[in-house]
Write a structure and sequence with these properties.
36% of the residues lie in helices and 16% in strands. By secondary structure, it is an alpha/beta fold. Helix 3 packs parallel to helix 4 (106-114). It starts with a strand and ends with a helix.
Length: 165
């Protein structure tokens, strides 16, 4: 389910009409189809940088590839500590962050980012299968949160919106 920072459970499209809550689809759907190019509004500039922080390689690569195919520059990190190092080299426009990871999880990563004004200003899209996603969303206040498994078209729409707000 998509949960926006203002508590809505749906995603508004460009015309302002509400879509249904995020539907579940497999990551393998990326292999069957590319990014929804027709869903991209003509005025969306996707020349932005996204950092995908996910410990499961298959999921991380699928998300990164999908966002790259849609025109984003994508950096990848396996955990929060690696993500902090990558962010110090190149500040992303958005971080897509898994909650539960080894070494440094999503909660510790967000706290570390908030200690640095430059890193703390980067919007976060929380992405997790954790049973306490709603509680983590309330605690961490990401720009948006999505439950895994996630529909990659929905994730792309959220990244588009968050990277331009």
């Amino acid at each position: 389910m998509l949960r926006d920072v203002d508590g809505r459970d749906d995603l508004d499209d460009a015309e302002g009409s509400a879509r249904q809550p995020a539907r579940v689809s497999s990551i393998e759907s990326r292999l069957r189809r590319g990014p929804a190019e027709s869903a991209q509004p003509p005025d969306v500039d996707r020349g932005r940088r996204v950092l995908v922080v996910e410990d499961e390689r298959t999921i991380r690569h699928s998300i990164a590839g999908y966002l790259q195919d849609a025109g984003y520059t994508v950096d990848e990190a396996e955990n929060g500590a690696e993500a902090l190092n990558r962010m110090r080299d190149a500040i992303p426009d958005v971080v897509v962050l898994d909650l539960l990871m080894p070494i440094m999880g999503g909660r510790a990563f967000v706290q570390a980012c908030r200690e640095d004004a430059r890193l703390g200003a980067v919007p976060v899209v929380l992405l997790s299968a954790a049973h306490d996603l709603a509680q983590a969303t309330e605690q961490l206040q990401p720009r948006a949160s999505l439950a895994k498994p996630v529909d990659l078209d929905v994730l792309l729409a959220v990244v588009d919106r968050v990277s331009h707000s």
